[in-house]
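USER:
Try writing one entry.

ASSISTANT:
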Amino acid sequence: MIEHNKIQIRRAQPSDRQTIIDIYNEAVLAGIATDESQPVTVAARQGWFDQFDARHPLWVICVQGHVSGWCALEHFYAHPAYRDSAEIAIYIRRQSHRHGLGRALLNYADQQIKAHLHFKTVVAYIYEYNRPSQGLFASCGYEKWGHLPAISKVDGEYRELKVFGKNYPTIKAGA
């Protein structure tokens, strides 16, 4: 957990789930950052919440005690060969955009990966038109590794994903 200028990052608790979904649904309704075309519920995302464990955390960032965003380090792929890889996702409450919270979460995740999570590779999938997120990840050391053209169809529109990734070469994989 870190605290700085009334900002705290901590593991998400069950009591945070509705707020996490509310933040996610802001992105759904904006139509810019998710695969969903309709808001989701906590119950509908229960399986997603259940995946998080000691090595695959879900963190929230709080400003003055209120959850303003979240960061997830999800399983990259179910096969054991991908044990040392993770997918990262970050969502920030719209009113808190451009206040450094995404950068704080990415920096915190980076510290945790280096200190004890020991992932070798972390991947982010970002929609092509989500330039702010692409800029954030690039500024935090993620490289553009590729793109997946017309990979998803949301509300009748095909969307392209940009693939950003970061390797941790000095970390002992699988530690």
The mean pLDDT is 90. The chain is about 25% helix and 35% strand. Strands lie at 2-4, 7-11, 58-63, 66-75, 85-92, 121-127, 143-154, 157-167. Helices lie at 17-30, 46-50, 101-117, 131-139.
